[in-house]
Amino acid sequence: MAGPRIVVVAGEDEIARACADYTCRAMERAIAERGRAHLALTGGSTPIALYRALGSAAFRDRLDWGSVDLWWGDDRFVPFDHPASNVGLVQDTLLDRDSGIAMPAGNVHPFPIPEADAAGEGPGWCATRYAEQLLAALPLDARGLPVFDLVLLGVGPDGHFLSCFPGSPLVDAPAPPVCAGVPAPTTASPHIPRVTCSPRLTENARDVLVMVAGAGKAAIVAAVLAGARDPHRYPSQLAAREGATWLLDSSAAAGLPADVRATAG
Ligand code: 6PG
Description:
Bound molecules: 6-phosphogluconic acid
Structural class: alpha/beta
Number of strands: 9
Strand content: 15-25%
Low-confidence stretches: none
């Protein structure tokens, strides 16, 4: 089975610039072809440098941000001002007032966590409402699933992606669900309930960019990209697909066998 394109760059600064350029190209292509671009953002620490780069003078003016819709691949089920919030992370980086990005508020689509909280509902209710928003706003594929133009992803030390953790029933769940509530994970921090898009939305996306940096990820990158295929153990293998790009820094790529590294761009 054909795998992803693997690109190895020197360090985290190079990853940020390379991912910012990749993201802009994907958004430019979508806007040119369909008039709008639907981008699924990721959480964690790796994308911070990317979000700051996209908001910098080198990139912010490349895009008509009014034609970009920001979504989230997953989030922790906490208020947006909670330090663990992926929405808060984007608000403090990409959408920070210093970034100068003119993003209409109506283009920013967080999981309806405040609404769920106000209704006394949990992650499952929140995920269902978000799926309704995605189904109403995005183009749909032949199975009726929403199609993102680009899904940004990271990989957890346990091999998870989105909020699809080892052993998750989402790994091979038929779609729907488009989105799901997830109990607090035991294999990854923070141990907070989550809401997540289904992995099916990374499989049908027009483009997927996986960003991994740092020596601490070398072992999991080698297991995911060069080890035996076992998505139940390594859910992020579902993003190691043809058409996806894995952008690694040299530290994160250090555990890859020479033959896999040799194919790296
Ligand atoms: C989250 C992210 C998650 C993240 C990985 C990698 O909500 O935590 O969506 O899937 O991408 O945990 O995180 P780092 O980039 O911080 O290693």
